[in-house]
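Researcher: Here's my situation. A collaborator sent me these components and asked whether they could plausibly form a single complex. I don't have experimental data yet, so a predicted model of the whole assembly would be a useful starting point for our discussion.
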Amino acid sequence: METEVIESNILLPQHLSFKRVQLSEKYPKGQARGRHWKHLKQILQVENYQTYLPNEPNYVNIETPPSMYPSKKFCDITGSEAPYIDPRTNLRYANTDVFKRIRMLPNEYVQRYLALRNAAVVLK
Amino acid sequence: MAELLFETYGIPSVGMCSYSKFYLKLLVHHRHPVAFGVDAAFSYKYNQQLGICDKDGLAISAGLTTSHVIPFVSGEPVFESCCRTNVGGYHVTDYLKQLLSLKYPHHMSSITWEKAEDLKMEHCYVAQDYASEVRLFQKGDNEAEEKSICWQLPWIPPPTEAPPSEEEIARKAAIKEKQGQRLREMAAAKKSSRIMELETELQGLEFLLQQLEHVQESDIPSFLSETGYVSKQEIESAIVRVTQSLRKVKGEQVEMEEKTEPLTTEKYPLIDVPDNMLSPDQLKEKRRQLFLKTTSEGRQRAKQKRFEEELERERKNQQDEEKRLENPELYLEQLHAKHRELSEKVEQRKRLKTNGSRSNGNQNLSGGVGRGERLNAAQKERMRLLTTAAFDRGKGEDTFGAREEDWQLYKLMSKDNDDDDDGPDEDEAELARITSRLQDIDPLFVPKLDVIPVQAVTELPKFRPLTKEDFQIVLGVERIRCPEILFQPNMVGVDQAGLDEMVGVSIRRLPTKGNGLEERITSSILMTGGSCLFPGMAERLEVGIRMIRPFESPIRVVRASDPILDAWRGAAAYAAGAQFSVQTFSREDYYEKGEDWLRKYQLRVLQPMIVILLSNQSIRFS
């Protein structure tokens, strides 16, 4: 985004007349401890869903269940249907051309492709 | 949520309708009541008022980070049967960005989030049948090309170098010539200065020598101590050296060898004098001279030998030449035969030396050899002899030594039997000679290389100048692949049902069924939220829902009048409505009963959703 836009305070004016306490008063600049955001998991934990009645809808129990259809396999590189899996990299591929490309890929890219469908190996 | 509203904004009252849930459509105005609720619900209500959808229906809200499906029965949302999938427009953009930057790693910096979002909004569409559409792209024919979008990055063609003009060439040549001239001049100046230097040195030395003649014998050392020379001879040799280098510099032929030849006796005057006539110093000198003489003689001999060899080779070549002139074809044939024979011989020797590993050459190349394989054939034979000798004990009568040949064994066993003889070397030399000769005579002859040529020489990609095509980003399958994750979330690793199946899930969850309710619901399906703006979304949803519903179910999918802003409009309409003041929850209530009361009252479902939304969207109001 252009710097002029940011500087001109069009996006987020510093003073919001409808607020009782302004953001800049609450979190003065240069203060060591700025505002901290709660993650979704933290919020969910605070909410204590176990205590709620199970038949009442809440954030946790309205989640969609997994699909009824068998999941289709798609080529990680080209996006077409993939009948094969490379045993070395675990990437799915559609045909020999893609396979050649997969074998040429550096490991970093392989991991990034896998991460796209949440299948990357995460070493901790 | 309520805390936030009351404390931070000082709002007099909050309006909650039964479909108020989470998307904060705040009608924030100082000291005004606000309404908050579910965006999908507000949007559905608004569109219902517009007559786009009926009072029984279904809202499909494809949001930023999540997608919801909420059924409506007689105008009220049924939260018990709504469902949520954690995939939204954010994921589509992210997927597109990642895919493009993986496809074009060189242009990763050009593919920013904003650009990806633009590309998504402009070019992505939902395929009616993803599999067949993708097959179309895979075939890569004209149709696919038409559907591919090409994004040309800014690219400036490199300046083409025009061939230099005559003038330019002449100018460059002149500059080169000038530089060469300057270098030559510098060299000449250096040379003349060196000559001057050497001449003055020579003059100085000669002057010193003349002076020395006037000085008495006994005074010589004291006289010379100032000059740094020890004896008259030394001065003389220095003069010789200087004259030689002077000649060299002047470019005259240095006839050092010839000059020194006759001087031998003068050079080594002490050699012929018997030892007992000399002082210890002179003895030392004599030994030195002797050494010098022998070495120089050795050098002479070697030179002689080389010369003779040269002559011999010359003679041989001449003979060959004669033979060749006599009968060229026969000669060539003979030469070839000889070459073959010799090369075989040499090869065989080599093979023997390297333990015959040429036959299974790959082992040799791989380098992984055990101890046994490192030994050559002769060493191996020796080891064999040693071991047999060691274990050949007490086997009948020991007759070792009875015959002469037995003693040959020791010779074989001895360590230095590695015949480093000249034979093969001669062979090799001969081979080299013949090879070179063949190369001279026979244009078809190709010398066999020792090294086994590596079979698969990977051809290095030739460097080519970057072209316009290298700065193009082509959106092909990505156009349909990215929005497809809304329908098949497991493409991005989210194990949940997609938008079309969510409708089925939602209908299944309805607490009251029958009386044609399902049919009524499916005949008024409203799409709202930014992600439903993809072209082809309605058609795809219809196809998907038709697959889940019974045969010939009425299905009608409509898009909200403005999918992005309708929720806000709905909330505004609600807040402006007459019933709003009755349904509010005032600040006094809040102070009196606290937040929990509010929660128990209606918002058990809703509360966390509000907070989550706020946390996701970097609250602007806190």
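Model: Some features of this prediction you could bring to your collaborator: Chain A touches chain B at residues 1, 12, 17-21, 23, 37-40, 43-44, 47, 52, 55-59, 62-69, 71-72, 74, 78-81, 94, 109, 112-113, 116-119 (CB under 8 Å). The mean pLDDT of chain A is 81.
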